[in-house]
Amino acid sequence: MKMSRQLPLNALRVFEAAARCGSFTKAGEELGLTQTAVSYQIKLLEDHIGEPLFLRRPRQVTLTTIGERLAPRVSEAFGQLQDALGAVMEASGDMLTIHSTATFAQQWFSRHLGAFQLRHPTIAVRLISSTSMVDFTREVADVAIRWGRGDWPGLSAHRIMRLDFTPMLSPKLLQATDGLKEPADLLKLSIISAGDPWWRQWFAAAGVENPDLDRFPRNEFGTQLLDAGIAMAGQGVAILNPGHFHEDIAAGRLCQPFDILCNDGRDYWLAYPESRRTVPKIKAFRNWLLAEMALDRQAE
Known about the structure:
Number of helices: 11
Low-confidence stretches: none
Strand content: 15-25%
Mean pLDDT: 87
Radius of gyration: 31 Å
Shape: rod-shaped
Oligomer: single chain
CATH topology of the largest domain: D-Maltodextrin-Binding Protein, domain 2
Structural class: alpha/beta
Order of helices and strands: HHHHEEHEHEEEEHHHEHEH
Number of domains: 3
Helix content: 40-55%
């Protein structure tokens, strides 16, 4: 039989409280148990050991010799467990683990996360970027930046950025063409990541039927940043979220040839387990991020 099944931890906890308080009634008040429940747990422990631990007298209980030998060791053991848990909780409280899409991490966190640490210097940040959606029940994570509809069971979710999309290219490539008079003219250029479903949705919204995107390489780079870099180098047209590339647009590295902006109902969200919504480091990060996003929207 496994030790974890042999060791009556609940009964030991009740015994420790009863020995320290010198009373079953006071132990029950401390632990939120009835006197009957305390007596039951003590009896279980005595049966397990095979020796009485208390002498029961009217309105009084006292430790037996065996109980006196056991009590300080049990008290010390629970103290060590509490110290160990406290150390783990303190270490966990100092580290905020964020899972994020690669694009959001590179384009937004890289420019803003330092401000969070200046405001909360005692919270260390571990940022993990991935194309997969983190499973809070299986992976170490405090919060996540997800794209979707925000309808994840068991999670609190706050919309932080619209995930619109539209074709973008370098102004130099635009000038080098004979002119992009209508959306179908984009198909005369190299389409970057033509397998991205955003392309078909955008062309459908633009009224272009059968764009024949299969004739272009179906690259998958895993982040909009690479697609944007190829577009800025003048090597094709990328389908991007303009919200990530305000600085590149302002600097003349990217431009939007048509005013058709699409959204498939999936945006960027801050998500975390509903059960952990009051954890101080999560509250601090949530409040900071929502405030920063509000400032970004005002600046647009």
